[in-house]
Amino acid sequence: MDAKAKKLLDDAGRQTYAEEAGIAVKDQPAALWKLLVLANLLSTRISATIAVAAARELFAAGGGTPRGMADLSWQARVDALGRAHYRRYDEGTATRLGRMAEIVLDVYGGDLRRLPDKAGRDRSRAAELLEQFPGIGPTGADIFCREAQAVWPWLRPYVDRLALRGADRVGLPGDPGKAGVPGKDVARFTAGLVRVARDKKLADAVARA
């Protein structure tokens, strides 16, 4: 593996954003739902730290499954977001999360493992389907796919524009394969690229490797 890629993984890619939110990403209904919630929360103009904390609060309140989120009252969702200081967007986000849960239940039978088949395992089509969820636009679809590639190999390598910006900042190729990163580490690698895109001090440390 490229020395700089290893430095990136060690300093910025020890965890994906999902892992930071306490989500053990697996090809299972609850884990994929939690990832979709996190992608929704990370899509707004709010810090990743607050979005991760908000995800944790929602899951602790019972929103860790589509049915659980649908059964939470709107106020319970707002309160969970508030405990994480997810301000300004809390009311609209609470509404969108409820609607998103209903769509997963109605269209996917509560199981997002059906999405790959509906998308024909085509990344562009997968993004289109994800963008049908309220609160998930191109940014949210990128976040979901970037993290889901950990368990959906057909997405690999998924390197979105923000990750490419991070790669450029530290002088790494945008293609993880060219940096010698094995498939099992691609999701962590791209998460690391996003972190250095957002954090100049961190980027400078990796760039010096």
Structural overview:
The chain has 209 residues and is an all-alpha fold. It has two domains: 3-16 and 158-208, no CATH class; 23-136, Endonuclease III, domain 1 (Orthogonal Bundle), CATH 1.10.340. The protein is 63% helix and 0% strand. Helix 1 (3-11) runs antiparallel to helix 13. The longest helix has 19 residues, at 90-108.
Rounded mean pLDDT is 94
Proportion in helices: 55-70%
What structural class is derived from the secondary structure elements? Answer: mainly alpha
At the fourth level of CATH, the homologous superfamily of the largest domain is: Hypothetical protein, domain 2
Rg, Cα atoms, Å = 17 Å
What's a concise summary of this model?
The chain has helices at 3-11, 17-20, 29-42, 48-63, 66-71, 74-83, 90-108, 115-118, 123-130, 138-148, 161-170, 186-198, 200-207. Helix 1 runs antiparallel to helix 13, helix 3 packs across helix 4 and helix 6 crosses helix 7.
